[in-house]
Amino acid sequence: MGQYILRRIIHAFFVVLGVVTAVFVITNLTGDPVQLMLGEAATAQDIERVRRELGLDRPLYVQYLNFLSSVARGDFPESLRYRGHSALEIVLDRYPRTIVLAIAALCVSVTLAVTFGTISAVKRYSAIDNLVMLLALFGQSIPNFWLGIMLILIFAVNLGWLPSQGYELSPAYLILPTITLASPGLARLTRLTRSGMLEVLNSDYIRTARAKGLRESAVIFRHAFKNAAIPLVTVIGLDFGVLLGGAIITEQIFQWDGVGQLLVTAIYSRDFPVIQASVLIIAVSFVLINLIVDIMYTWLDPRVRLT
Amino acid sequence: MAGERASVTSLVTPFADVRARRSATQRALRLLWRNRLGLLGVSILSIVVLAAALSPFITPYDPMTGDITKRLTCPVLTRCPSFMPGATPVRGTLDHPLGTDQLGRDIFSRIVYGARVSLIVGLAAVLLGAGFGSTLGLISGYYGGRIDAVIMRIGDLFLAFPYLLLAIAIVAVLGGGLLNVIIVLAIATWVPYARIMRGSVLSAKEQEYVIAARAIGVRDLALLFKHVAPNCLTPIIVFGTFNVAAAIIAEAGLSFLGLGVGATRPTWGNMLADGRAYVATAWWLATFPGLAIMLTVLSINMIGDWLRDALDPHLRNVE
């Protein structure tokens, strides 16, 4: 088991290294970043000065090594928009807000998906199963940015129950962005829970459990769900990445002051250090969460420990 | 010699294969007839495709030209909100069945033209991503060893970025535009195709028809693309269908953020972004483009479900 975890950690380290390299490549090899930063109106002297300041006049491999070392030290260049603050400092300041939103959305989608997916599987082919599956099909097809606007229209504009936008750590501000962000994952997880449960419910050990005279609730929750949950854990890990990506649009709709909104603003204002830091933080979080999920797997599924 | 090899090669493809392929198509069509949701999906998507193809003939107005005197006209059968205190409320008319936007442009015409962009981006991104990913998966699975390791590790790297984040990061540097958005969405999605194809090839390459073809000297390239690839396409087609829906949503999302195909073209995402600013006063601006996206994506997902049931009996039993 220790060897498995060590192997996963080494793998994650190389993926993170790859992510850092990819961010460097994306922002450096697709044209002159200084020209992109300063725009068409910049003079040759301005471009030269910024190139020197950022170390972009050096050979590419030196730039790459400098970039690696500054990432390792957490020493990012200064933001071009918020002068006097390092890009990483600004991103880390907004990061908890994105995480709060992503975790709230994950909790909502997992709780509802497991409930509806299990009911649907247990009541297979009933009216409730058909209704849940139809709703899941719709849920997968609704673009969440449209759902967000419609929620604002109904609950903020027409009913006036909830605020339409803004960031505050109160349930009122959190409800609409959470539902918006959770909706695609909720639909997907519901379908997966149902299919996972159906597969498990048809297996021999469930028949044995029933034959022993166990209560149906014990059969479903103690025996069936435990096994159906194993593949779900992987999907939940991957979904967290989808949530972090989806948060970029959700934060924009609700003016939620997180990393997603910061990234979009940085793209509009060509603030490359902030773009680099935001992409890096989100991608590294995704890798680390999947590493945790992989490690959790060894605890959930003994077969992984043995291979 | 070459002709001899070709005739021998053709014998390698067993008749049973051709029959199986024909019966798979027949089974798929039979299942479509029985699968009401699949049939509904095909019908809805056919209407969207026809509307997009015939947009210059069926739209009453130019999607880019507005009539400022008719700005924010509400849809037919609804009461327009009065923007001036004390003004008499007006009802929408059939002139603009879905109303007009803040510049007086006809929403219906813009939605019909917007379908073109969504369908082109969705299909092209999937074809490009699936073509590129499947080819790499084919090479990776067939040759194995170092080539396999390198391709799969590069794939891991791409998977380390959430899909939309990767697309946004590349668009931020490359810039928007139709071609760039297609390329970006293809780059962001090639890995699952490579993995699916690799998995299929790993099991296919041990099968007798591949061993037989190799034994009679069929070259690698011909073997890969003529014999192995066609037999591994089913999961790629099913995944690709669902991915068209995902690409349409992603394109709309990029356009919504102002990073899509550009403001000069009417797209559903651009329309949603415009509508967001008017959500308190003109609900129809954001409602109808969103409904168009939802219906199109829903129809593609229904078709995807039908294809999966028809082409992959294993999954049919599970779900």
Automatic annotation (TrEMBL), chain A:
Main location: membrane
Keywords attached to this entry: Cell membrane, Membrane, Transmembrane, Transmembrane helix, Transport
InterPro entries membership: BPD_transp_1_N, MetI-like, MetI-like_sf
PROSITE patterns given in the database record: ABC_TM1 (PS50928)
Membrane topology: Multi-pass membrane protein
All copies of domain ABC transmembrane type-1, residue ranges: 95-293
Domain of life: Bacteria
Compartment annotation: Cell membrane
One GO BP: transmembrane transport
GO terms for cellular component: plasma membrane
Segments crossing the lipid bilayer: 12-30, 99-119, 131-157, 169-187, 229-254, 274-300
PANTHER family the record matches: DIPEPTIDE TRANSPORT SYSTEM PERMEASE PROTEIN DPPB-RELATED
Family: Belongs to the binding-protein-dependent transport system permease family.
UniProt name for this protein: ABC transporter permease
Originating organism: Thermorudis sp
